[in-house]
Write a structure and sequence with these properties.
single chain; 337 residues; alpha/beta; Rossmann fold; seven-stranded parallel beta sheet; 7 strands; 56% helix; EC 1.1.1.330; fatty acid biosynthesis; endoplasmic reticulum; lipid metabolism
Length: 337
């Protein structure tokens, strides 16, 4: 009887030892995997070089098409791609801004420029047909899908205006699809091209109170991955640029900080990391700016998605409250004048 009890205790001890050993191995593998993933991130951000712009026609007479080109990120892409010796087609709403930028680029970089003014919110098919004629005559090497519109302030979906919802869908989704399709025809004929879609962390982590914008950027992310797989055999590189805040008019941020660069270093990072994931776990996607890559990796490798979404909700409720108080102050000031 005693020997049976001793045998049972020994078996229990053996089982406990096996389980402890198993959990130790699993834990060690988990830690090793995370460590290797983080080291790979650092190599991507600070060591690896992306594809050369020469692969896409830089200095060989090719053109770069840039939407939302008159300000912010789009304007900086125009400068840096012109410096790389691409001819530049600038597309945005305000012709006067485009013409000033085009003259500056021609004088500074000695490349050709063209401008095309259109309001993407209108979704005017005649505008697109005329643009298609322009694009069909050019050797397009690069397309920067940068044009986008956002909510004025964080707003619950049920309270958002129909006009703003339609504008976001028309600009961020429909306009991007139409321009990309006409450019792909030209690129495929040359069997080379680069399509950069300027995405957002709002499309990476669902963002309450910016639900329509968040959904449009989530579409851009998934579409970029599907399109990238389709176009790779045709020699065309597609990359969704997962972007946190940048100092621009749309972000309403005026000062740079660790997570929020000015457009110049942001664009420089994007163009230097073509084809390099930089923290993104999705194919055909990059978080090229160093702090954005670090943030992307932390989101993917720390807390749950529901935790991050809850933090987004808290943050945007607070931003909405502050924005509404600012509007009230401005309205009161206007009445007192």
């Amino acid at each position: 009887m005693l020997s049976n009890e001793v045998a049972a205790i020994l078996n229990e001890n053996k089982l406990a030892t096996v389980l402890v050993g198993l959990f130790s191995v699993v834990g060690a593998l988990f830690i090793a995997n995370k460590t290797l993933s983080f080291l790979n991130l650092l190599v991507d951000l600070y060591v690896r070089s992306g594809k050369s712009l020469q692969q896409f026609g830089a200095g060989k007479g090719a053109w770069a098409v840039i939407t939302g080109a008159s300000d912010g990120i789009g304007k900086e892409f125009a400068y840096q791609l012109a410096a790389a010796k691409f001819n530049i087609l600038l597309i945005s709403r305000t012709r006067s801004k485009l013409e000033i930028l085009a003259n500056e680029i021609e004088g500074k970089y000695g490349v050709q420029t063209q401008v095309y003014a259109m309001d993407f919110t209108k979704g005017d098919l005649q505008d697109y047909e005329k643009l298609k004629e322009v694009i069909s005559r050019l050797d397009i090497g690069v397309l920067i899908n940068n044009v986008a519109t956002n909510h004025e302030i964080p707003t619950p979906f049920i309270m958002e205006s129909e006009e703003l919802i339609n504008n976001i869908v028309e600009v961020n989704i429909a306009g991007t699809l139409r321009i990309t399709k006409m450019v792909v025809y030209v690129m495929a004929a040359k069997h080379r091209g680069l399509i950069l879609n300027i995405g957002s962390f709002a499309g990476y982590v669902p963002t309450p109170y910016l639900s329509v914008y968040s959904g449009s950027k989530a579409f851009l992310s998934t579409w970029s991955q599907a399109l990238g797989a389709e176009l790779k055999p045709k020699g065309i590189t597609v990359q969704n640029v997962n972007t946190y805040f940048v100092v621009t008019g749309m972000s309403k941020i005026r000062r740079s900080n660790f997570l929020t660069p000015y457009p110049k270093p942001f664009v420089r990072a994007v163009l230097s990391k073509i084809g390099v994931p930089c923290g993104s776990e999705y194919p055909y996607t990059s978080a090229a700016y160093p702090s954005h890559g670090l943030a992307n990796w932390l989101i993917a490798n720390t807390f749950s998605w529901s935790w991050w979404e809850a933090r987004n909700l808290e943050s945007h409720i607070d931003i909405r409250k502050r924005a509404l108080r600012k509007r009230e102050r401005e309205a009161a000031a206007a009445k007192s004048q």
